[in-house]
Design a protein that fits this description.
With 124 residues, the protein is mainly alpha-helical. It contains six helices and two strands. Helix 2 runs antiparallel to helix 3. The chain is elongated. It starts with a helix and ends with a helix.
Length: 124
């Protein structure tokens, strides 16, 4: 949810500051290798042991472990950012990293209901 909020804020900000010669770009990264997934999984499992969401969280933890195996190196996203910064005419959005294009295309082509069904189906 926070990524979508930042994207909306960036789109609004881009329109607001364009008159001052300021460009605002959005970086849409796919999966990136980091410690984030392990930290998230540990915290989720620790804090959900007595929760009504325990079964869902256990499934999500397994999904997260599997889905991060092929993530891109951080340098891929760093290069994407550098490309946007150095461009004289930057694009509004830069997409890169593991599975990023697939997610962006699926989001545009599929209905919200079908997209949600696919995402939730991945966590079973």
């Amino acid at each position: 949810a926070s990524k979508f909020a930042l994207e909306a804020l960036s789109d609004s900000l881009r329109n607001e500051v364009k008159q001052f010669g300021i460009d605002v770009i959005v970086i849409e990264p796919g999966g990136v290798k980091s410690e984030w997934a392990d930290i998230t999984i540990d915290n989720l499992l620790k804090n959900s042991s007595n929760s009504a969401y325990k079964a869902s969280i256990d499934r999500f933890a397994q999904f997260l472990k599997k889905s991060t195996e092929n993530n891109s190196e951080p340098s891929v996203i760093a290069q994407l950012i550098l490309t946007g910064i150095e461009s004289k005419n930057p694009k509004f959005r830069y997409v890169g990293g593991y599975n990023a294009n697939i997610a962006v295309i699926a989001r545009k082509l599929l209905s919200d209901k079908l997209f949600d069904k696919i995402v939730l189906g991945q966590m079973k």
